[in-house]
């Protein structure tokens, strides 16, 4: 039978470590997937940035996008590829562009999730605009920031409505701190969000297609220690609850790769930050958890490419709102939301396909992550972020944590 090549494009920005590991493991896997049309092979290529004719064809079947949330040329090339050439890309570029943290909070409140109380406030300052003065003089109402703070309670958090990797997130313990943070916010449009005071767990759940992974998270630690290596920190039922929450959010917004942060207080999980559709993929922060992420990239991208899964170009929210309108407890609604998500991610088909064609991935990845190529990928990422005198120290730190992962995930018989 003839070979059929599926081309996977990696649209990258500052990414160094995960694409290098992805490429090495794909070469070692040397996948040959039988199909009625022939044997499917995979060709991985990094997408370049250059002028393009809107009518020129796109040579990729799937593009893994890590760039378009901030680099517009690549975003518009991807959008053209989707609408003209039936390109499959994750994540949906229109959803990434349009649905920021503000929209995600409002939508998940509408679905009944226990989002902490959240207010939006007009910006303290404005860029020059000839229409600004007449607009504000006619329609802007004076407001008492302190009253909003008292209604939400302290401590509360001030943060930009559109997020941005912990940008300008401020904990306000009292009214004086709140007013100081607002004075310093300048032209940013800000949210004020009630704190979940007295929480006993802070968990980040990473969703990649139907795959999820939970990590106990410590936001007060240095970046390289925020993803802790704790095990057994939540029950199986809590983990399943967070899986359903994460997949519901991701399916709702068409985000196939996203992370959800939740706090647990008195047995209730409060999602607090879940519009992260280009989540951290670097070994310098994920360390021990990095191999899971690389394998998840491989599983989802090859499944989508091999099966020619159709991309959902439009966001269809009505099935979720139909469930939200039912007179049911939230847990029963969540079960129904998750069922919609599993249908959209084709979870059963994905699990069957990966079991049949990627059964050797775990062992191949286990072998790879002790290699000199793996260590070099780690070193290159460290060198891009750390001072020269710390490169060797932190290369060893992250490499050793990956080796700890290998020890904990040793294949049977190895």
Question: Would you mind describing this structure in some detail?
Answer:
The protein has 16 helices and 13 strands. It has a 5-stranded mixed sheet, sandwiched between helices. It has a 4-stranded antiparallel sheet with strand order 6-9-7-8, covered by helices on one side. α8 crosses α12 (330-345), α11 (318-324) packs antiparallel against α12 (330-345) and α15 (372-385) crosses α16 (391-408). With 414 residues, it is α+β, with helices and mostly antiparallel strands. The mean pLDDT is 96. The protein is globular.
- What structural class should be given to the helix and strand makeup? alpha+beta
Tell me the helix content.
Answer: 40-55%
The mean pLDDT is 96
Q: Which residue ranges are poorly predicted, with pLDDT under 50 across at least 5 consecutive positions?
A: none
In short:
This protein has 414 residues and is of the alpha+beta class.
Distinctive features:
single chain, five-stranded mixed β-sheet, 414 residues, alpha+beta, four-stranded antiparallel β-sheet, globular
């Amino acid at each position: 039978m003839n070979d059929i090549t599926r081309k996977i494009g990696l649209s990258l920005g500052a990414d160094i470590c995960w694409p290098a590991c992805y490429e090495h493991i794909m070469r070692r896997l040397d996948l040959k997937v039988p199909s009625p049309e022939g044997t499917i092979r995979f060709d991985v290529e990094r997408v370049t940035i250059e002028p393009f004719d809107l009518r020129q064809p796109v040579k990729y079947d799937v593009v893994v996008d890590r760039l378009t949330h901030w680099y517009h040329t690549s975003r518009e090339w991807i959008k053209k590829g989707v609408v003209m050439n039936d390109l499959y890309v994750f994540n949906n570029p229109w959803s990434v562009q349009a649905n920021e943290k503000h929209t995600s909070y409002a939508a998940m409140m509408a679905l009944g999730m226990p989002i902490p109380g959240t207010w939006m406030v007009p910006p303290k300052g404005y860029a020059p605009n000839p229409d600004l003065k007449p607009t504000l003089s006619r329609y802007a109402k004076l407001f008492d920031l302190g009253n909003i703070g008292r209604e939400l309670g302290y401590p509360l958090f001030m943060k930009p409505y559109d997020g941005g990797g912990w940008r300008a997130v401020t904990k306000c313990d009292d009214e004086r701190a709140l007013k100081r943070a607002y004075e310093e916010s300048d032209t940013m449009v800000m949210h004020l969000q009630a704190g979940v005071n007295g929480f006993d767990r802070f968990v980040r759940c990473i969703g990649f297609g139907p795959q999820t992974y939970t990590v106990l998270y410590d936001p007060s630690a240095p970046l390289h220690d925020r993803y802790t290596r704790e095990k057994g920190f939540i029950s199986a039922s809590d983990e399943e609850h967070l899986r359903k929450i994460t997949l519901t959010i991701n399916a709702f917004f068409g985000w196939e790769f996203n992370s959800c942060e939740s706090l647990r207080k008195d047995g209730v999980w409060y999602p607090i930050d879940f519009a992260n559709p280009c989540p951290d993929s670097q070994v310098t922060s994920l360390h021990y958890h990095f191999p899971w992420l690389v394998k998840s990239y491989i599983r989802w991208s090859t499944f989508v490419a091999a099966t020619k899964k159709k991309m959902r170009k439009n966001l269809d929210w009505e099935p979720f709102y139909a469930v939200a309108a039912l007179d049911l407890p939230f847990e029963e609604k969540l079960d129904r939301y998750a069922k919609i998500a599993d249908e959209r991610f084709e979870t059963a088909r994905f699990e069957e396909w990966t079991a049949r064609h990627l059964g050797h991935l775990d062992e191949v990845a286990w072998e790879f992550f002790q290699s000199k190529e793996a260590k070099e990928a780690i070193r290159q990422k460290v060198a891009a972020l750390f001072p020269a005198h710390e490169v060797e120290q932190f290369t060893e730190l992250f490499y050793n944590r990956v080796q700890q992962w290998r020890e904990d995930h040793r294949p049977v018989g190895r």
